Amino acid sequence: MRIKLAEIIAATGGAPSPGDYSQTVNNVVIDSREAGPGSLFVAFAGARADGHDFVADSARAGAVAALVQRDVEAPPGFVTVRVPDTLLALQRLAGWYRAKFAGLQVIGITGSSGKTTTKELVAGVLEQKHVVLKSLGNHNNEIGLPLTLFALEEHHRWAVLEMGMSAPGEIRQLCSISKPGLGIITNIGEAHMEYLGSRQAIADAKFELAEQLAPPAVMILNGDDPWQRRRAQAGLPGVKKIIFYGLRQGDVTAANIDRDIHGSRFDVRWQGKSIGVTLPLPGEHNISNALAAFAAGLVAEVPPQAIVQGLAAARGEARRLQAFDVNGFTVIDDSYNANPDSTLRALELLGSYPSGRRKVAFLGSMLELGAIAREKHRLIGAAAVENKVSLLVAVGEFAEDIRLGAIEAGLVPEAATAWPDSRAALAATENIRANDVVLVKGSQGVQMDVIVKFLKRGRQ
Questions:
Q1: How deeply is 255 buried, as exposed, middle or buried, from its count of CB atoms within 10 A (0-12, 13-18, 19+)?
Q2: How far, in Å, CA of 54 to CA of 213, rounded?
Q3: How far is it, in rounded angstroms, from Cα 12 to Cα 394?
Q4: Whole-angstrom Cα distance, residue 124 to residue 116?
Q5: What's the rounded Cα separation, in Å, for the pair 345 and 58?
Q6: Pairwise CA distance, residues 382 & 363, whole Å
Q7: C-alpha of 180 from chain center
Q8: Strand order in 263-270's β-sheet?
Q9: I want to staple 61 with a disulfide (CB 3.0 to 4.6 A). Which of 35, 158, 306, 407 is the partner?
Q10: Computed from CA positions of residues 239, 243, 244, 249, in that sequence, does the dihedral angle turn out positive or negative?
Q11: What is the pLDDT of residue 318?
Q12: Cα separation of 411 and 209, whole Å?
């Protein structure tokens, strides 16, 4: 990134302080600790800290300018650009910068779960032929996506962007900034039910991705998801082509599936053709994610054999179904986040381990479910029993609901405990034995990673 400060002023419509507007900006940061020579610092007034208090720090680190929404005293030679809203100014600037890359194709990926893994798989496939920019980590919101776009360079031909949301209109806004020509929806689940109120509202919010697509205007949809099929049948006016992928139905499907705890082998079938795939990611859901990536590769004209190579090189994301051995037992770290769909998938993976190994589940509360929260947590407790869990440790606000659901499904009461938070639940790690398989899963707010870190330290 190399743009003139004068261009930033024009793109944001801001009012600059006196200074040298010919200076070059080479990156955009929202944390003054990440500023360096040539940075543009964007000051946000957050709940815990106000970025305006750190403008001088960014200048001392080498930043040349800052976007601000109130007057700030700045060092000599440092330019502040005052705007009514720094978030909107950041998004406006990112949209202007993305428009400079006329030959760039963007794939937007959304869904209730599986977004990050699918993003990684799609990027890995496209990288077999193209130079690709992808979202870093889970930079998928109204701040993270714009920051990702500022990493665009002339050599990039594709950008693979994860798009998250918790309210109507958010994905539409991300699309207005990034201008995707392709969209992928992983599934329509129940995450964010508290804010959106119904599964239909969640589907409507996800399908904002299909609105006003740039050419070639292709949507890659999950054919196994009835919500997506119904929406496609109702019509998607801005979409020129729909490709369905799925384990059971679709234009791109899987056959001859052979799964184990380490991954899977299967044949991908499309347009009367077939090719074998080895995927080093566990779980049936990751086969579905791989099919979405295969479909994206076909649209991007990546040769099928190269697509296979990209999938074979896949590596899981940190804290997402990552298994490791410690002190004679196995931990499945899926502590990044949780919703009903992803928790069921994690429990299914736990249950697929050999019958001679005891299954232990540390399950944290799933947040943002609203009125259905207690019902869903009881169902998760029951699902733990269905997947052969012998020892259940429930954590957080809805821990008692998980515990009761498991007991009602047949787990003996002494094998199910409820704890108020993850630190209190550390006491339950005393019950882990050699050869156990231990799943740790829960929403970010429950901080189940505390338990994972404790186990990695050897319960010390």
A1: exposed
A2: 39
A3: 48
A4: 12
A5: 44
A6: 12
A7: 17
A8: 132-134, 158-162, 105-110, 182-185, 218-222, 241-246, 252-260, 263-270, 273-279
A9: 35
A10: positive
A11: 87
A12: 43
Q: Walk across the sheet containing 437-441 and list its strands.
A: 322-326, 329-334, 437-441, 359-364, 389-395, 416-419
d(CA 185, CA 196): 17
Retrieve residue 388's tokens. 């052969």
What does the angle CA 209 – CA 113 – CA 285 come to, to the nearest 5 degrees?
A: 115
Please tell me the distance from the alpha carbon of residue 454 to that of residue 20, in angstroms, as a whole number: 52
CA dist 344 → 239, 250, 311, 363 (Å): 32, 23, 24, 11
Residue 229: the pLDDT is 97
What pLDDT score was predicted for residue 174? 97
Closest C-alpha among 384, 334, 342 to residue 359: 384
Would the pTM of this model clear 0.70, i.e. be above it? Answer: yes
Strand partners, 393: 362, 417
Which pLDDT score is estimated for 280? 97
Q: List the Cα angle 202/366/280 in 5-degree steps.
A: 85
Per-residue model confidence (pLDDT) at position 196:
79
pLDDT of residue 47: 81
- Using 50 as the pLDDT threshold, list the residues of the chain that sit under it: none
**Contact status, residue 35 vs residue 61, Cβ threshold 8 Å:** yes
49, two tokens: 């800290």
Does residue 363 contact residue 343 with C-beta atoms inside 8 Å? yes
31: exposed, middle or buried (C-beta count within 10 Å: 0-12, 13-18, 19+)?
Answer: middle
